[in-house]
Every structure is written in C-alpha cells, then in structure tokens.
Design brief:
This protein has about 270 residues and is of the alpha+beta class. It has 7 helices and 11 strands. The protein has helices at about 40-55, 70-75, 100-115, 120-130, 150-160, 170-175, 255-270, and strands spanning about 15-20, 25-30, 35, 135-140, 145-150, 185, 190, 200-205, 220-225, 230-235, 240-245. Strands 2-1-11-10-9-8 form a 6-stranded antiparallel beta sheet, with helices on both faces. The chain has a 3-stranded antiparallel beta sheet with strand order 3-5-4. A hairpin with a 4-residue loop joins strand 10 and strand 11 (about 240-245). Helix 1 packs parallel to helix 3 and helix 1 (about 40-55) packs across helix 4. The longest helix has 19 residues, at about 255-270. It starts with 14 loop residues before the first strand and ends with a helix.
Length: about 270
C-alpha cells in the first residue's frame, strides 16, 4: 500500500503526486503527465531561472530592481515593500515580508532586459530544457502563470535535492533565510513572526499553522499555489513531495495537506 493512496479521498476531480528521493521517484500517484495550473508554485521555477541568470552574470543579487533601494534579492525574498499584486509600495525596503507576485513580474523583466531574451523563453532554455521538463510552460505572469505536470516537477525536485543547473552553494544560499526577522503573512495561513523566506523559496521554520506537515523539519523549503498545488523539499529527509490538483486552495485543503504531509514524512523517516 502506497503512502499516496489517501489522495483517493481528497475532494478533487483530479490529483497527481510523487515522492522523490535522491534515488529518483520513490512513489507516484495519478497521471504523471497530466498538466495542471501551478499558480504560485510558478515562483519556484522563476526563482531558479533568476538564479541561473545570476550565475551567468547577466544580473546580480545586489542589482537595483523594483522600488528605490530594493535589489533582485529583496524581490526574490519578498522584502522589497511592494504590494501583493500591484506595483505600489506598502513598506520600506527590508521592513516587512510582503508577499508580492508583482515583484516576480519585475524580476522577469529584469532578466529579460539583461539578456535580451523573453523571460518565458529564458525559463524554457535555462531550466526546463536541461531538466527534460517538456510539458512545463510559462504562459502568463511570472508570479503565478505556469503550467506543468508531476513528471516535470519531480525532475525539478531532483534538481533541488542534488543541483546540477546551479552551484550547490547558490542553492544553499537561496534556501536559507534572507533578511531574517521580518514579519509577514503567508497567504491563507495568517501572520507569522517571523515569516522566513529564502530567495524565492518559502522556508518552513517553525510556522504554525502551515501547509507542510508539523513534522517537516524547519529547514523544509518550497511553495504552495492557489490552484491547489504544492512542492516541498526537506533537506533533513533528503526527499521531496509534489502534489497537483485541479481544485483551488481553500478550507478543504488546510487539514488534508498538513495531515497528508505528516504521513509522508513519517513514512520517509521510517525508511532512513
């Protein structure tokens, strides 16, 4: 019996999932090539592409971007002061963790201007093609406009477990807390003090309530999307979990996601 079998009880029309370890896909559920809207899980792919651009020296983390005084790093870490979905300033740079999709649109434009390549094409060439992510496409805004499959995101999760596109030190920096001590809201889960975030990757830390499991380690990083999607990587377990559904995030998801993730963590822990 698979740890993923409980997904049959979820109130969704379609769900696909995978558990990934350093050895590859350990368990799978549903149609692995079915394409879903990712919503904000898009930000993980965009962050990876931005970090590739940094390593290629097309841009730098300390380059100015967004509001006066903000940098590429501030935008990646939701510390620029920009509003959620508007290019309006709601706080000073580095004062609060304001989750901003608008900031990711500016990041895409920054890479576009520096490289002369449309950002959707840059993402496809720099991330998707080398990882074999053939069904992944950025069709809309860089903050929430990608579509992908579990098969593709399992390949991406493998990259996050054992990086090949990025230097290990680059990924390690991106998945540790940036601008520590900032308070802010996780959409759907309320205010956290602090609301830890890396460079595009949300850091679990000790947040409660949270979409990951209570037993996920504080070092767990990833993202969830309003499309009913999530991807997390737990470095302590050396494993990742991807779940994609076709039902928007809402009250139905909160207990199911955290309970499900605790079961996954328990199963992975028992195998170590």
């Amino acid at each position: 019996m698979s740890v993923l079998d409980s997904l049959t009880e979820w109130p969704v029309d379609h769900v696909s999932a995978a558990v990934i370890t350093r050895d590859g896909v350990a368990e799978e559920f549903g149609d692995p090539v079915r394409v879903y809207e990712l919503a904000s899980v898009t930000k993980l792919l965009v962050a990876e592409a931005v970090l590739v651009a940094v390593e290629e020296e097309a841009i730098a983390l300390d380059d100015p971007a967004g509001p006066p005084g903000a940098t590429v790093a501030h935008l990646l870490a939701h510390a620029s002061g920009l509003a959620f979905d508007k290019r309006e300033v709601e706080a000073g740079v580095g004062e609060r963790r304001i989750y901003s999709s608008a900031g990711f649109e500016i990041l895409a434009e920054t890479v576009e201007e520096a490289t002369g390549i449309a950002f959707a094409d840059y993402l496809a060439e720099a991330v998707c093609a080398p990882l074999g992510m053939t069904s992944t496409v950025l069709w809309g805004p860089a903050g929430h406009g990608a579509r992908s499959s579990v098969a593709d995101l399992a390949r991406f999760a493998s990259e996050l477990l054992a990086p090949r596109l990025l230097a290990p030190e680059t990924l390690a920096n991106a998945t540790r807390v940036q601008f520590p001590g900032l308070d802010g809201f996780v959409p759907g889960y309320g205010k956290h003090k602090p609301n830890d975030w890396g460079l595009g990757f949300e850091i679990r830390s000790h947040k409660a309530p949270h979409w990951t499991g209570a037993s996920n380690s504080p070092r767990t990083f990833g993202h969830f999307g309003q499309a009913g999607t999530f991807l997390w990587v737990d470095p302590e377990l050396e494993a990742s979990c991807v779940v994609l559904t076709d039902r928007p995030f809402g009250p139905w998801a909160k207990p199911l996601w955290s309970e499900f993730n605790d079961v996954v963590v328990s199963e992975l822990s028992s195998q170590k």
